[in-house]
Amino acid sequence: MPHLDPADALELDDELDEVERLIRDTVSAFVRDRVTDHVADWFESGTFPTSELAPELGKLGLLGMHLEGYGCAGADATAYGVACRELEAADSGLRSFVSVQGSLVMFPIHRYGSEEQKLQWLPKLASGEAIGCFGLTEPDQGSDPGGMRTVAKRDGEDWILNGTKTWITNGSVADVAVVWARTEEGIRGFLVPRDTPGFTTSEIHRKLSLRASVTAELHLEDVRLPASAVLPGVTGLRGPLSCLSEARFGILCGVVGAARTCYLSALEYSTTREQFGRPIGGFQFTQGKLARMQVDLAHSQLLALRLSRLKDNGKLRPEQVSLGKLANVRAALDIARSARTVLGANGITTEYPVLRHANNLETVLTYEGTEEIHTLVVGESVTGLAAYR
């Protein structure tokens, strides 16, 4: 009886074209050569080697890879999703870095920026010469960004920004921040270079999740910006929400990699760890766990591929992205937790990747829209009734 491929039980990678497979193999090799042996140490020390990895990721064409022109690779959505999967197979922090750079910083500049802004920032961001961050979440406003307190007021031809943003990936290492602020016209996006007077950052420490990732607060105190700093192409929440939809697509694909790593780790352990004179993978309880994890992984892989193809065809809707993030992050977290039980006490060490992934996924579950918010998005989509308030 032929065996299922535990990494791809439904043989979905056969549906990838030649370019998508090349990207898969290239990213997988990069992760294996540059990340896998080191990421546990980064996690334990709470560090991420941004200055080393950013240029390498840029050289591979992974930064803003789904955008056209300005030094971007112009890859299709499926290829981007596959890249996210292979990056997050190592660590969610690595995928988060690429996702923030491409979907939350480069995407709004590419979609809503002026030609001058695009020429100034996109080539440097694509190469990894410059790092960006995305300032939306505030200490008192997370799931309801419409209530943000950061304000931008006109002063002649200039703008004056005041406010605080928090839980900002790459915040303390970014060369430019895309900051969203309330104005008399509605919510607008501003490009804030790091050396702007009044703009400071403070790194967030003592995290128990996403430790191999830089997280910070942004502080804006009477930050004066010229009119040319405003993203001219959008006003209102549509701007930041469209960016989040791009990032969520990367998440729903990326977490499949984390789930796959956890599952394969548990599977390998179950065939070598012996109790009562035989491998624990031969006992019914353990096989039941492995079978359920395999089913959840296959479901997630199938969902990610389907949504990727919809995005390539220009048919993917935000509600479908919410469905994908809701389903796949939860499945990945369930797989990580179940895999940890297969590994027993060994599963809590950084020698194995499982609990590190589980800790990271606790953050992924709530960032870019909490599980509850995405549940309500799907609920409204099928009933036509909003239940947010």
Automatic annotation (TrEMBL):
Positions of the Acyl-CoA dehydrogenase/oxidase C-terminal domain: 236-382
Coiled coil regions, renumbered to chain: none
GO biological process: fatty acid beta-oxidation using acyl-CoA dehydrogenase; fatty-acyl-CoA biosynthetic process
Domain of life: Bacteria
Family annotation (Pfam families): Acyl-CoA_dh_1 (PF00441), Acyl-CoA_dh_M (PF02770), Acyl-CoA_dh_N (PF02771)
Cofactor: FAD
UniProt GO molecular function: fatty-acyl-CoA binding; flavin adenine dinucleotide binding; glutaryl-CoA dehydrogenase activity
Domain named Acyl-CoA oxidase/dehydrogenase middle: residues: 133-223
Keywords per UniProt: FAD, Flavoprotein, Oxidoreductase, Transit peptide
Domain Acyl-CoA dehydrogenase/oxidase N-terminal: 18-129
PANTHER family for this protein: GLUTARYL-COA DEHYDROGENASE, MITOCHONDRIAL
Family per record: Belongs to the acyl-CoA dehydrogenase family.
Protein name per its UniProtKB record: Acyl-CoA dehydrogenase
